[in-house]
C-alpha cells in the first residue's frame, strides 16, 4: 500500500475537482501520462454512502470490490485519438533538469562529492524555477545522462556517428541525423560542437533534424540554438519539427542516423492479463467513473494493435519470451487452486507504441541506422511484467506509488525496455541487424572516459545509469 505522504497528496489533488467532467472508459495505460490526458464527470456516479466532505478520496483495495457493471456499461468509450485533443486535466510537462555549467569531474574527490554537488545544483535549479514560475509542489523533474554528463555524453555519440559515417556512406551522402525527443536540445548542440571542432569536412556535410512532440521543448531547443554566437553558427544545419513521431509523413530515402535517447520509456503500453489455465491474453481497460475513480477490467476481445504485437513477438522470438505466469501447466493449475487465488495472471505491459515506432522507421526511414538508449530495468516499479515506475514529486520528494491508475497529469509513468524482445521485434519489422550493449560498455568504447573520472578513480559516467542499455543498427 502507498505511504501516508501519498494519501496526503491524493487528498490535496481531489480537493480541487476539475470542471465539466464525464465518466469514460479507455485502454489501460494506452495514454502516455508524460503527456497526460484527462476525462472527468458531468454526472456524479451513484453515491456509495460517502460523506460529502472536502474530499471523497479513500485508499482503494482489491478486497470484495462492488459490482458496478450495469452502471459502467453506460459510459462512453474514449480512444487515444480523442484524448489527444483534450486540454484538461493539466497537460503539464515534466521539466528536464540542467546542471548549468558542466561538472568538473577531474577536480572532484570521488563519487560522493559528485552526488553532493549534484544535490546542490538540483536545489539551485528548483529555486530558480520557483522564483520564475512560482512554487509548484507537484513539479516533475527528469534527469538524463545527456544533461548530467554534458558535453562528454554527446561527444561520445558524435564520435560514433562520425566514425560510422566515414566508414560507410562518406563522401557520397551527407551526414543526415534525426533526433526524436531532443529534450532541451543539449545533445544536438554537443554533437554539432564536437563535429565542427573535430572534423570540419564532415561538419560541412552535416544536417541535424529534431522531431519533438512537446511545443514548449521545441521552443526551448530553438532558443538554445540561437542563444550564443557559437550555437547560432549551427542554425542553418538544424531543422526542428514540432510533431509526434507517430504523425510523421515525410519519406526520407537517404542514409541517415536516427537517435532516440530516453524516449522509449515515455511510450504508452497496453495492459494485459492472461487466463492462467488457457494462457489466453485479455485486454485491460480502465473506466473512470463520475467521481474520477478508476476501475480496471479485462475483456476477451484484444485491441487489434495488441493482437498484432503478440503475432510479431511470437514470430520474432520463436515463442521464447517471458510470461507473467508459470510456464509449467501443472504449476499453473495448482496456482489456481490456492485459497483466494486470482483467475487471471499478474499484469504484463506490452510496448505496442514502440512497435508502432518501428513501423514508422521501416516506412519512412528505410535507410536509417538507429542509435537508442534507455532503462532496461527500473527499481521501485509497480507489480507485473515489464511494469512501469509510477511516481510523482511532492514538495521536492520523489513519491513512488503502487498502481498505474492515478490522477492524470500529476504522475510520471516510466516504462523499462526489454532490449532482447525489442531487438527481436525491431529486426523482424525493419529487416536490419542490431547490437545491444550496456550504457557503460558503449561509453568505454566511444567516450574519453578520463574526462569524467574523479581523483579517486571512480567514474560517474560509467557507474551511473547501470540500468541503461544502448541498441545500435549494425
Ligand atoms: C526523457 S526526455 C529525453 C530528452 C533527451 N533525449 C535527453 O536525453 O535529455 C523524452 C523526450 O521525448 C519527447 N517525446 C516523447 N514522446 C514523443 C513522440 N511521440 N514524438 C517525439 N518526441 C517525443 C519528449 O517531449 C522529450 O523531449
**Radius of gyration from the CA trace?**
24 Å
Structural class: alpha/beta
Sketch the major β-sheet: 7 strands, mixed
Number of strands: 17
**How much of the residues is beta strand, in percent?**
15-25%
> What separation lies between the terminal Cα atoms?
45 Å
- Number of alpha- plus pi-helical segments: 16
Ligand roster: S-adenosylmethionine
Instruction: State mean pLDDT (0 to 100 scale).
Output: 87
Tell me, briefly, the overall form: globular
The percentage helix is 25-40%
- Low-pLDDT ranges: 14-23, 29-57
What's the arrangement of strands in the largest beta sheet?
Answer: 6-5-4-7-12-17-16
Organism: Hypocrea jecorina (strain QM6a) (Trichoderma reesei)
Region (Disordered): 24-54
Biased composition (Basic and acidic residues): 45-54
Subcellular location: Mitochondrion
Walkthrough of the structure:
The chain is of the alpha/beta class and 474 residues long. The chain has a domain at 23-44 and 66-92 and 267-414. Helix content is 33%, strand content 18%. A hairpin with a 2-residue loop joins strand 13 (389-394) and strand 14 (397-401). The model is unreliable at 14-23 and 29-57 (pLDDT under 50). Bound molecules: S-adenosylmethionine. S-adenosylmethionine (SAM) binds next to helix 5 and strand 5.
Amino acid at each position: 500500500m502507498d505511504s501516508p505522504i501519498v494519501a496526503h497528496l491524493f487528498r490535496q489533488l481531489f480537493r480541487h475537482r476539475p470542471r465539466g467532467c464525464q465518466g469514460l472508459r479507455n485502454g489501460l495505460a494506452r495514454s502516455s501520462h508524460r503527456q497526460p490526458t484527462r476525462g472527468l464527470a458531468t454526472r456524479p456516479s451513484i453515491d456509495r454512502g460517502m460523506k460529502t466532505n472536502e474530499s471523497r478520496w479513500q485508499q482503494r483495495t482489491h478486497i470484495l470490490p462492488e459490482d458496478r457493471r450495469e452502471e459502467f456499461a453506460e459510459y462512453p468509450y474514449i480512444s487515444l485519438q480523442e484524448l489527444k485533443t483534450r486540454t484538461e486535466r493539466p497537460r503539464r510537462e515534466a521539466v528536464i533538469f540542467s546542471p548549468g555549467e558542466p561538472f568538473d569531474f577531474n577536480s572532484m574527490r570521488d563519487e560522493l562529492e559528485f552526488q553532493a554537488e549534484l544535490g546542490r545544483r538540483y536545489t539551485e535549479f528548483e529555486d530558480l524555477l520557483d522564483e520564475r514560475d512560482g512554487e509548484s509542489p507537484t513539479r516533475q523533474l527528469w534527469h538524463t545522462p545527456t544533461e548530467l554528463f554534458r558535453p562528454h555524453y554527446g561527444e561520445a555519440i558524435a564520435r560514433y556517428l562520425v566514425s560510422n559515417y566515414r566508414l560507410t556512406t562518406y563522401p557520397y551522402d551527407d551526414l543526415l541525423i534525426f533526433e526524436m525527443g531532443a529534450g532541451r536540445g543539449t545533445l544536438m548542440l554537443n554533437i554539432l560542437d564536437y563535429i565542427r571542432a573535430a572534423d570540419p569536412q564532415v561538419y560541412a556535410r552535416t544536417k541535424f533534424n529534431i522531431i519533438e512532440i512537446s511545443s514548449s521543448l521545441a521552443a526551448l531547443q530553438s532558443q538554445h540554438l540561437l542563444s550564443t554566437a557559437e550555437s547560432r553558427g549551427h542554425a542553418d544545419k538544424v531543422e526542428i519539427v514540432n510533431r509526434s513521431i507517430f504523425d510523421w509523413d515525410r519519406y526520407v530515402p537517404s542514409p541517415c542516423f536516427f537517435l532516440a535517447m530516453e524516449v522509449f520509456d515515455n511510450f504508452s503500453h497496453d495492459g494485459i492479463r492472461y487466463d492462467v489455465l488457457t494462457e489466453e491474453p485479455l485486454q485491460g481497460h480502465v473506466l473512470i467513473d463520475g467521481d474520477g475513480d478508476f476501475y480496471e477490467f479485462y475483456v476477451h476481445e484484444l485491441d487489434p494493435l495488441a493482437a498484432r504485437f503478440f503475432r510479431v513477438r511470437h514470430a520474432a522470438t520463436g515463442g521464447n519470451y517471458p510470461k507473467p505466469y508459470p510456464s509449467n501447466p501443472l504449476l499453473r493449475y495448482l496456482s489456481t487452486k490456492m485459497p483466494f487465488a486470482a483467475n487471471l495472471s499478474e499484469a504484463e505491459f506490452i510496448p505496442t507504441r514502440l512497435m508502432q515506432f518501428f513501423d514508422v522507421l521501416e516506412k519512412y526511414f528505410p535507410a536509417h541506422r538507429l542509435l537508442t538508449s534507455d532503462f532496461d530495468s527500473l527499481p521501485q516499479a509497480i507489480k507485473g511484467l515489464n511494469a512501469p515506475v509510477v511516481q510523482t514529486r511532492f514538495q521536492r520528494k520523489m513519491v513512488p506509488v503502487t498502481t498505474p491508475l492515478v490522477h492524470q497529469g500529476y504522475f510520471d509513468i516510466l516504462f523499462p525496455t526489454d532490449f532482447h524482445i525489442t531487438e527481436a521485434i525491431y529486426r523482424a519489422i525493419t529487416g536490419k541487424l542490431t547490437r545491444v550493449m550496456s550504457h557503460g560498455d558503449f561509453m568505454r568504447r566511444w567516450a574519453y572516459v578520463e574526462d569524467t573520472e574523479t581523483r579517486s578513480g571512480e567514474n560517474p559516467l560509467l557507474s551511473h545509469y547501470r540500468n541503461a542499455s544502448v541498441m545500435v543498427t549494425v
